[in-house]
Each structure stands twice: as structure tokens, then as C-alpha cells.
Amino acid sequence: MSLLAKLDLPVRNKQSELTDDMFERLRSFVYKKTGIYFQDNKRYLLESRIGRRLIALKLSGFPAYYELLLKGGMNGELKDLVNAITINETFFFRNLPKFDLLEKELIPEIVERRAGEGKKSVRIWSAACSTGDEPYTIALIVKERLQRKFPQVRFEIAGTDINTQVLEKAKAGIYGEYGVRNVPPPMMRKHFKEDGARFQLSPEIRKMVKYHHVNLSDRVGMGRMRGVDLVLCANVLIYFDTQAKQRVVSSIYNNLNPGGYLLVGFSETLYGVTQSFQPVRFDKIIAYKKG
Ligand SMILES: C[S@@+](CC[C@H](N)C(=O)[O-])C[C@H]1O[C@@H](n2cnc3c(N)ncnc32)[C@H](O)[C@@H]1O
Predict the structure, then answer these.
(1) What pLDDT was estimated at residue 122?
(2) What is the 252 CA–ligand 1 centroid distance (Å)?
(3) Residue ranges of the chain with per-residue pLDDT less than 70
């Protein structure tokens, strides 16, 4: 009998520890499937989030979990893992200068170009939209400010994410105070219904955005988003390494119509990632244009 058993102490199951080898395997699996790369200093995060899955699934340890991941496709355990490990922080009117630029410069330019080509639609895509705050911000701007200016234009707005839970929340359109704190008061009064500390977005705005489950690192899935004029891909590529960023940015490039724009997050840059786009400097923002 082992000493631990004699002392009647809990025998720590070796399998429940995340070994270096298992960390490497899990990290590489997540990276290959999603583009998200867990740096060594984020190991604790991967360990604790997967730890929760182990408990939920009553599995013996990380090796058993890894086996399970290998067996399933995107709709298997990987879906739940992705839902557990992604960071979904977002809010309405995040990075105000970006929405200002979009309203006053980029969309009017795109509308003019499309009209010149005899097209009536403008397609806008919020890639990695989390709970929908970003695409709904665009919908609010379109509804309140742009549709009047361009009555002939059909604005089509899409929101995509890899996390199925946030997409469900996006469709429901119910937000807390934190999410809506930057919404201008007149828009707030007109388009949100207050229910205690929750705010329900009006069906009129909700129906302006179509949501799809798209993994930025899946070329086939990305291929379904062809023919867009403006892409917002903010605060997601920061979790990817350079190679994964290059793959995503190249898919986005292929999806954009000529003359279309890509906008990234406030402190993000595509310097060193791509040379395909033409960087266009506006007052506070660099927009990436497909020539
Ligand atoms: C921090 S949120 C950013 C939300 C919004 N773009 C913004 O700037 O407020 C990052 C989002 O990226 C999503 N994400 C992470 N990896 C992804 C991938 N490979 N494909 C699609 N979405 C991904 C996450 O699920 C999360 O909702």
C-alpha cells in the first residue's frame, strides 16, 4: 500500500495535472483550429477553462479530454471549448472615432463607388462580433443617420463569431448597463426598452443584422462571406500569432470588393502582417483599402 493511501490523504490523480506535453498538445490543437495562440504566460487560463470542461464532462483528466477533442469536429467538444476559452469583451460605440470615420467618410465613399457600378447595396461585415454590440452600433448609425442621406441604398449588415453562445446573445439583443453606456441618449430612448438593469434592443434594429457562425481561421467558412464592402475585425487578431493573422487577413482581402475597406481595433496594426492593402491614414485611424 502506498504511503499516501496509508495516511488516508487524497491521492492526486496524475492525469488531472496539466503536464508540459499535454499543454503543448492542447495549445497546438486550439491554435490549428482557431488561430488563437496561448502564450506560455496564459497557460493558467487554458488550464482553468479546460478544467471546467473536465468537471462538466466528469472526465478523468486532460489526456481523456484531448482524446475527446480529437474525435469530434467543430460541432463536437471543440464548440464548447471555444465557448469556454474566447474572450468576448465588447460594447456599443467602442472606439468612437472608428464609427465617426465609417459614417462620415468610408460609407459615403463606398456608396458613391457602388452607385458608379450601378449597385444599390452596401455590405458591411463585423467579423468576430461577440454579442453583436458592434454590428448593432452600425445598424443604429445606418437607421438614424445614413438611411436618410442615402435612401436608395440597401445596407446589409452581417455579424459573425466562432463562439455560438455569444451569437445567441446577439440575436436576443439584451444588454446590461455596461454594454450600452456609450449609446447616445436619443438612440437609447428610441431603440432600447429598459427592463430593470437590462436593455432590450428594438426588433427594428435587430432585424437589420444577420448572424452567422464563422471561424476566421476556416478558409471554407470564410469563403461564404464574399462580396463585402467594409469589414470590421477588431480586438480579435491580438489573440493570434503572425501566421494566423496573415491567413485571416488574406481571407478578408479575398472577400472584399475592390475599393472596400478593412478596419482593425484601436491599438492594432497590420504592419508586418500584409502588404496587399493600401493603408489610408485618416485623422485618428488607419483604414486598410483593397485597391
Ligand atoms: C474581444 S471580442 C471583440 C468583439 C468586437 N469585435 C469588439 O471589438 O468589440 C473577440 C471576439 O473574437 C471571437 N473570436 C476569437 N477567435 C475567433 C475565430 N477564430 N473566429 C471568429 N471569431 C473569433 C471571440 O469569440 C470573441 O467574441
Answers:
(1) 98
(2) 15
(3) 1-15, 73-74
pLDDT computed for residue 179 by the predictor: 98
Q: pLDDT tens for residues 146-169?
A: 999 999 999 999 999 999 999 999
Determine whether the shortest distance from the Cβ of 88 to ligand 1 is under 6 A.
Answer: yes
98-127 exposure pattern, b = at least 16 Cβ within 10 A, e = fewer: bbbbbbebbbebbbebbeeeebeebbbbbb
How much is the pLDDT for 77?
94
Q: Is 128 a pocket residue for ligand 1 (Cβ < 6 Å)?
A: yes
Q: How many helices (H) and strands (E) does the chain have?
A: 15, 10
* Contact 50 CB / ligand 1 (< 6 Å): no
Please give the pLDDT value at position 17: 86
What domains sit in the chain, N to C, each tagged with a CATH number? 3-85 (1.10.155.10), 96-289 (3.40.50.150)
Which of 159, 156, 196, 154 shows the shortest CA–CA distance to 175? 196
- Closest Cα to atom 27 of ligand 1: 130
Using a 10 angstrom Cβ sphere, with 0-12 exposed, 13-18 middle and 19 or more buried, the burial of residue 173 is buried
What is the per-residue pLDDT across 45-63, written as a single tens digit (0 to 9) for each?
A: 999 999 999 999 999 999 9
Query: Closest Cα to atom 2, ligand 1: which residue?
Result: 88
β-bridge partners, 211: 159
| 95 within ligand 1 shell (Cβ under 6 A) | no
Q: Is 92 helix (H, G, I), strand (E, B) or coil?
A: coil
Instruction: Tell me, using a 6 A CB cutoff, whether residue 237 lines ligand 1.
Output: no
